[in-house]
Amino acid sequence: MSNVIGQSVSNEPEVGVALSGNGRAGTESSLFNVYGVIANELSHVEATISSELQNSSAEVELLLSHSRSLGGKRLRPALLLLTGKAVGTVSESHIFAAAALEMIHLATLIHDDVLDDAKTRRHQETAHAKFGTRPGVLLGDYLFTHSFSVGSKANSIEAIKMLAQASNLVCEGEIKQNAWQSDFSIDEPAYLQMVSEKTGELCAAGCGIGAVLSGADIGTIESFKSFGRDLGVAFQIIDDVLDLVGDAETVGKTLGTDLQNRKVTLPVIHALATREGKGRDSLLTMLNAETVSVAEVVSALKETGSIDYARGVAKSIAERAVGFAAALPESDASKSLGAIGQMMLKRTF
């Protein structure tokens, strides 16, 4: 690759490979259209991830081949590349940073699946379900540690610093969520702060790094980070909603795990704040049952309008992101950033 990314090399995978392998065609076709302006650059990211996640050891390669097959929406690297292009020029440094960011994200998903005992992810068996808990944990560790080796190739101390800080905050958010299991006294502001760390921070880092590597000033960098964080928070709130009322085939992973693991999510927080007396006690009994009835809890959440409330909060945050993108200097990249925000407003995947 040259310093400024040019035409795709003929033997590199097309961007559609990452988006079409395991998901729903409609959603991923829309994403492919949104990513069109960075299709060439994203194909370089795919090639980098593929080449970095290979190993001469048969034992290691077995696990890495599973991680290579996961595919996904590539939202975080796309945000990095689109921000870089909206601010200036995308270079080889952006490619390495985007690949590193996606590897960190994959590591968090694999560890999440272990913690949640989820059986499917992106329409296939999870790593720990396929290979066992220990190999699953170790695969996540490998992806996480190797991501910094890849990220160092961006030759930017600031980019590595942002990757490290974001990774730390993701772990802080996960620690909080784990500690809060069955603690139904957690309120909405605490939940939103946790989600900002757990999910919003990697999206914020993607936008921030993209801006840094394109030479943006500190004000622009921070504004793009806020934009990315809003997208991540909106994404996670809807993810929590879909875990309750989504379609497993469309979403592509095991649903109902939040309730079974007694995670505190916004619909539950709202319902408990809305209900009083015996109604609240009844909901707490359902939430603390040895085997939680997802259908019964969802019915109770719908009665209090808590599903719609959570969607409304996500919509408000996503609209803020859309407004930021609309105010950017007009370009194909800024239009795509706005389109991603619009997709969050109607997310079903």
TrEMBL record:
Enzyme class: transferase
Record has Acetylation as a keyword: no
CDD domains: Trans_IPPS_HT (cd00685)
GO molecular-function term, one example from the UniProt record: metal ion binding
InterPro entries, per database record: Isoprenoid_synthase_dom_sf (IPR008949), Polyprenyl_synt (IPR000092), Polyprenyl_synt_CS (IPR033749)
The protein's Enzyme Commission number: 2.5.1.90
Pfam families the UniProt entry points to: polyprenyl_synt (PF00348)
Required cofactor names: Mg(2+)
Family of the protein in this entry: Belongs to the FPP/GGPP synthase family.
Protein name as annotated: Octaprenyl-diphosphate synthase
Taxonomic placement: Bacteria, Pseudomonadati, Planctomycetota, Planctomycetia, Pirellulales
Gene: ispB_1
